[in-house]
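Troubleshooting log. The previous run stalled partway through. Resubmitting the same two chains, unchanged.
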Amino acid sequence: MSAGPAPSAPGGVRARGRAEAGLLRRRWGESTLLPRSLMVFLSLSRWIRSRGPDRYWRHQEVLQHARHFRGRKNRCYSLAVRAVRRAFFYSTKAKKLKKRNMRMLWISRIAAGSREHGLKYPALISNLIKCQVELNRKVLADLAIYEPKTFKSLAALAKRRREEGFSNALGDGSEPTGIFSRIVHSD
Amino acid sequence: MALNCVRLLGSWSRSRVRAAVSALSSAARYQSSQGSVIQPRKEAITSLSKPPWSEVELPDPAEEAKHHIEVVQNVKTLISTGAYGRLFAVVHFASRQWKVTSEDLILIENHIEADCGDRIRLEKVLLVGGGDFTLIGRPLLGRDLVRVEATVIEKTESWPKIHFRFKRRKRYRRTRINVQPQTVLRINTIEVAPALA
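Second attempt completed without errors. Output:
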């Protein structure tokens, strides 16, 4: 600490000396106006600029859906984005297909069960509807698997209704009135 | 005689008249020569001669009625004596049909106006069955015949389901996250009462 210029007045000697010492002792980036307890790095942000603080989390949002995939697409973002997009698209499309496939499965199970009892699927379904039995295909398939006696009784009901339908269709065998025909009945 | 017939059948077509005339003439010939009766013409057997289903013989209605009464009596005794084990029922609830027994859990994909712990009666019963008998409703069974009771256990939301619409090369992408309210019911009891007709 070299001494400053010679003091002129006796009162300000110590003060000026201290001030000059403070000036010399000023650290890089330290404000000269504010005390050291309230340091503010005003120019620091000009040298280090953040280009977006949350890229990590935006990537994690996509990668979390790809963690169970195979290969690098479960780790690398650019590959994972494409795989995840396809996965979402296929899952949305499959929501409609699932309903169709389940109905087809039920129908084939009901057809198999009814054929065991000597009826075909269209006959069973149409005759159950005509008997006002409003069981849907899901429940009928479950009954065919887990309640065989109940399914047998439903098949018998449908068969009896079918036979009644046939006999109603034939009627009593008489010709309709008011029709003239040259056909002679065979015997 | 043939001329008289032609005048009477004035509205017919010519071919019919000719056929009628020829028939009459042949009949006249038959009658004059041999004196026998006209043989009726035999019809050919075609695919429309008989119906495509095999012959159907329905049972006698009186016997059938007796059989029905017997069956109903048996079922009534089974129900009144309580000689059934576990009962199952087909119940219509929340626009779906469920095949249900006691102690079953049901997950319903919507909100129900009942609190957790409330006891609920499921009224639309389509079918009830046990080991030896089944009661089939047309379409529903009576309220005084079956009673199915359930408790609301849980009311939650489903996991977030992603609905993603995408069109390639058209810059179209829409993402929607669907969280569906769910209710879990536990079926407590299924009771049958002997109120059959």
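Takeaways: Chain A is about 60% helix and 0% strand. Chain A touches chain B through 33 residues (CB under 8 Å).
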